[in-house]
């Protein structure tokens, strides 16, 4: 029954992705020409149009604090807690005007429309439970960062489906430390109301966000790097307490 109830809103969501199709040819041309700065600007424009369309379709309210903490002039990795599928929409809105790609589970690669666009955004797919494949994915992400493309990763590794937050996986922070780019902690609360509450796509969700000050990784010593996941996890947990 829930599958049937999700069909109308699911169809609206899939149709909204057609916004991206208007940009695919130009994005590919810029990529082939090596015009990275222009490509990043076009990707930001396309995702901005899509996320505003989704927010309008589903009457989503996103309250953002700390947008001034986003490094707009250089690549970085955003580390956020993961409450629900809507976190993708939330992160795109929070970083509006900046290109971001996502580290995503490999099952999403075959998802119609969305898999193609995760790749177009310079996202990287990661295979769960395969350590060697995960290392290759991390290196692919490092390469994207060194080329100037920013990424988002949810270091819990799965959705929490609610306000509570799981532990962060230390290995995910190699993405930033190997590329020597800033880490930007992000606290998200309320995104699970859009779907995970009842496993039904729901309109009218209100999401609160805190974009915390970036943490530079270029000069971290070995001990500081090994403790980075705990440091970021604690920052985000403290942010969640503000919404209790």
Account of the protein in words:
The chain has 244 residues and is α/β, with parallel strands linked by helices. It is built from 10 helices and 7 strands. Helix 3 packs antiparallel against helix 4 (36-57) and helix 4 packs across helix 5.
| Radius of gyration (Å) | 17 Å
Q: What is the N-to-C order of secondary-structure elements (H for helix, E for strand)? A: HHHHEEHEHEHEHEEHH
Number of strands: 7
The percent of residues in helical segments reads 40-55%
Distance between the termini: 33 Å
Count of helical regions: 10
Strand order of the largest sheet: 1-7-6-2-5-3-4
What would a concise description of this structure say?
By secondary structure, the chain is α/β, with parallel strands linked by helices. Helix content is 44%, strand content 14%.
Question: Secondary structure elements and their pairing?
Answer:
Elements: H1 2-16, H2 18-21, H3 24-33, H4 36-57, E1 61-65, E2 77-80, H5 87-94, E3 101-105, H6 114-120, E4 124-126, H7 131-146, E5 151-153, H8 174-179, E6 183-189, E7 206-211, H9 222-226, H10 228-241
Question: Which terms would index this structure?
Answer:
14% strand, 7 strands, globular, 7-stranded mixed β-sheet, 244 residues, alpha/beta
